[in-house]
Amino acid sequence: MENMTLNLKTALAKVQSMSRQSIGHNDEMFLQRIYGEGLNKYTERLRAIGFAGHEHVLDAGCGFGQWSLALAGMNQKVSACDISPLRVDFLGNLARELAVPNLDFRLSGIDELPYADDSFDAIFCYGVVFLTPWRKSLMELTRVLKLGGTLYVNANGLGWYMFLWQEEHNKADDYDPKAIAARTFTDTQRYDRENVFEPGMNLIIEPSVLEGELQKLGFSAINSSGEGCIHIDPSTPTPNPFFKGDYKGQIGVYEILATLGNKHYE
Ligand SMILES: C[S@@+](CC[C@H](N)C(=O)[O-])C[C@H]1O[C@@H](n2cnc3c(N)ncnc32)[C@H](O)[C@@H]1O
After folding, report:
1. Distance of alpha carbon 181 from alpha carbon 168, whole angstroms
2. Which one, of 32, 53, 30, 33, lies nearest residue 43 by Cα?
3. Residue 134 in contact with ligand 1 by CB distance below 6 A
4. How many angstroms is it from 235 CA to the middle of ligand 1?
5. What is the CATH T-level fold of the domain 2-260, as seen in this structure?
6. What distance in Å separates the CA atoms of residue 148 and residue 8, rounded to the nearest whole number?
7. Closest ligand 1 atom, residue 87 Cα
8. Of these four, 65, 188, 263, 266, which has the most CB atoms within 10 Å of its CB?
């Protein structure tokens, strides 16, 4: 494990220097946050929710790929996709540097996936659906998931945007949390009432609404909790949340784990 950490540090330094010109202030700080302590914390979280030992897993909206790399160490095959060319290239270069043999990556939105129906045994989608036309994205994720497969998804309630507004969490030269929080209200109103979605929107999704949509799509055994709190494998340690499950009495970041019992989409 020590060697893996050393390899990861060396590979990250090389890949970051290759792409430095396009990595902005926010992304640079984000990379430091997600990779600063290595991959162990992701591996532990994934084990706690049963994302180990699968034949084929999708990391939907993989970003810079910390979850994809952790998944690749515990599953036979992993596919990763993201809409950002910078992030997909970064993960591609990193996977090559680390010689990861079982990870493929595609440039793609999760609302229109380049995979065949019933491709995956499990789908992991962390920190993404609320940046997409999420009802359509959930239909796509359902289409590519096998019957009996597992979906992990997380999203934000009102409390998360209150937190962004009040604490200006992770503010950077090119990332303004207060402005995002303010826009999120009108974005959500336009998406929910007028079915309008534009790239760059952030959407508040209350857990009961997301759960209801999953039920309509044919999911059952829906487990919902604060981010990092679902613990279904008792042989693993209690997982450590990364975000606040609530903020000043309002729902913050939450997660849902569900099993696809039937497929009910058109
Ligand atoms: C908060 S980051 C999370 C990334 C990664 N899952 C993680 O945990 O670090 C959100 C990611 O969603 C991606 N994204 C935004 N809209 C998307 C879409 N329609 N389809 C796929 N990915 C999208 C962004 O490019 C970004 O990498």
Report:
1. 9
2. 53
3. no
4. 31
5. Rossmann fold (3.40.50)
6. 34
7. 27
8. 65
Distance CA 231, CA 73 (A): 20
Q: 84 CB under 6 A from ligand 1?
A: yes
**116: CB partners within 8 A, 6+ apart:** 144
> Tens of pLDDT along 181-190?
999 999 999 9
Strands 77-82 and 103-107: parallel
Q: What is the pLDDT of residues 83-105, one digit of tens each?
A: 999 999 999 999 999 999 999 99
* Calpha distance 36→132 (Å, rounded): 28
Give the pLDDT mean for 138-142: 97
| Token pair for 224 | 């919902």
Sorted by where each begins, the domain ranges of the chain are 2-260
pTM over 0.70: yes
Atom nearest to 66 CA in ligand 1: 9
Name which residue sits closest to atom 27 of ligand 1, judged by CA.
63
Per residue, the 3-state secondary structure of the chain, as one string, reads CHHHHHHHHHHHHHHHHHHHHHCCHHHHHHHHHHHCCCCHHHHHHHHHCCCCCCCEEEEECCCCCHHHHHHHCCCCEEEEEECCHHHHHHHHHHHHHCCCCCEEEEECCCCCCCCCCCCEEEEEECCCHHHCCHHHHHHHHHHHEEEEEEEEEEEECHHHHHHHHHHCCCCECCECHHHHHHHHHHHHHHHHHHCCCCCCCCCCCCHHHHHHHHHHHCEEEEEEEECCCCCCCCCCCCCCCCCCCEECCEECEEEEEEEECCCCCC
Task: Identify the residue whose C-alpha is closest to ligand 1 atom 1.
Answer: 127
How much is the pLDDT for 5?
60
Q: How confident is the model at residue 1 (pLDDT cuts 50, 70, 90)?
A: very low
